[in-house]
Amino acid sequence: MKRIKLIFVLAVTLLAAVSCLKSTNKQNFIWDVSFEEEGLKFHADDSTCFNSFVSFGNLIGFSAVVSGEENENLLGGFGLCRGVDPTLTGTAAKTPYHCFAHPYLENEKTFAVFRQSGNMPEEQIIFNIPSAQSTISPRGVMLCNTHNFIQIAKLGNGFGEGKFTSGDWAEVKFTGSLNGAETGSVSFRMADFSGGKEEIVEEWTLVDLSPLGSVDKIDISLSSSRENVFQVVCLDHVNLSCSLVF
Q1: pTM greater than 0.85 (yes/no)
Q2: Alpha-carbon distance 93 to 109, whole Å?
Q3: Which helix (DSSP H) or strand (DSSP E) does residue 13 occupy?
């Protein structure tokens, strides 16, 4: 239903653009997507919300594959979460999506999570460009690690997976595309134990996405020196430079 509604709104926008060619309207603005919109269905303040497609402002959408069961599970792609576990006690968080750090701003509750799954790949942020003259260019995004990943990286998981040692790393890669052609990519390490370093991202950290340029999609991928360890990352404040022509 959300996808149908999004397509309908986009169609209306395009129709309006065609019918008003003599009086073209152009809007330039900076847009910060913080995932705090009202109407999101959370069962509790520390819970996770899953939908097959969540859109904000009818310009940006986050797709996901969910189980479809009564208590839905995120099988791949994006979800929204409010759970935080900021201390390491040797036990896993309530869900694998809980963030290690509290939301970036004090009055916020919600952030996005991305889960990579080879069996259920949903890896793209989708932008709906209202006209050929319009552009949407990412400026930056805030990233943080989950409680569960930091626990493994620092302590191990107690089931044979030891903590990170020299040479280990975990990385997020953003790849932009426009009309099917790649526009650029940005890689950022969420943990880095190479070259004598012992770095793990424990706070919300700004990552510059301006090298991606003007896009209509962003593909996200996670990789690590340890197989099946780094599968979820937390995102917030997707910052965009928009120039829209109607």
Answers
A1: yes
A2: 17
A3: helix 2-19
53 φ/ψ angles, rounded to the nearest 5 degrees: -155, 120
Count the neighbouring beta carbons within 10 Å of the beta carbon of residue 10: 16
Amino acid at 59: L
Give the H or E element holding residue 113. strand 111-115
DSSP H or E segment with residue 14: helix 2-19
Report which of 81, 73, 82, 83 is spatially closest to residue 52, judged by C-alpha positions: 73
Which residues, 6 or more positions from 104, have their beta carbon under 8 angstroms from its beta carbon? 111, 142, 204, 236, 237
CA separation for the pair 218, 67 (Å, rounded): 24
Cα separation, 222 vs 183, whole angstroms: 19
**Contacts for 220 with CB less than 8 Å, ≥ 6 apart:** 114, 116, 123, 124, 125, 172, 173, 174, 175
User: Using one digit for the tens of pLDDT, what is the confidence trace for 124-169?
Assistant: 999 999 999 999 999 999 999 999 999 999 988 766 678 999 999 9
Contact indicator for 153, 88 with CB cutoff of 8 Å: no
Phi, psi (degrees; rounded to nearest 5) at 125: -90, 130
What are 18-37's pLDDT values in tens digits?
334 444 899 999 999 999 87
- Give pLDDT, residue 76: 92
